[in-house]
């Protein structure tokens, strides 16, 4: 069965939590279920990768005006003048790493961002020696615009990628994007909460 990237469902958050906390370390903070549910309520993009009925990866991203309490997200709010989509985290099950899932996810989130935002942002923790994450992001044309301390010993490179087609899409379609599956409209739950004024953005 082929790889499927799709919106997460609320009942699947327990599996997402397992993946997140199994990968927790210097660059991925551990979560509890309550905080993950807040992510689910406030994230504009929250999708999982599924193969043969098994969720093995996820990516979470927040719009620039979200009420998200990440210090790194706050850094971008203070240092980027344009609206942006912020990738908070991507997690791939250890057994599935190195098989291209990261590239597929980034292609999907970039397509989503390109139609809505001029900038895609994320951070990469700096480590001594070869930094696989920096190489990955560099190969996708992300550029460092600064660094942000994470603790006494660790810093993160703050990266952005300009969405080159965004201006044309905005001029051509405005907010009336065509209703096509690959356009990737925002999650229904997030739209409903924002419309009612009860969301976290």
Q: How would you sum up this structure in a few lines?
A:
Residues 3-164 form the N-acetyltransferase domain. The protein has 201 residues and is α+β, with helices and mostly antiparallel strands.
Write a concise keyword list for the protein shown above.
Aminopeptidase; single chain; alpha+beta; globular; 201 residues; UCP028520; disordered C terminus; 7 strands; 7 helices; Acyl_CoA_acyltransferase; seven-stranded mixed beta sheet
Strand numbers in spatial order across the main sheet: 1-2-3-4-5-7-6
Order of helices and strands: EHHEEHEHEHEEHH
* Name given to the CATH architecture: 3-Layer(aba) Sandwich
Mean pLDDT: 90
First-last Cα distance: 36 Å
CATH superfamily placement: Gcn5-related N-acetyltransferase (GNAT)
Here the CATH topology equals Aminopeptidase
How many DSSP-defined strands? 7
Q: Could you tell me the radius of gyration in angstroms?
A: 16 Å
Largest sheet: 7 strands, mixed
Helix content: 25-40%
- Report the CATH C-level class: Alpha Beta
What percent of residues are in strands?
A: 25-35%
Number of helices: 7
Query: What structural category do the secondary elements indicate?
Result: alpha+beta
Give the total of domains: 1
Q: Provide the low-confidence segments as ranges.
A: 195-201
Shape field: globular
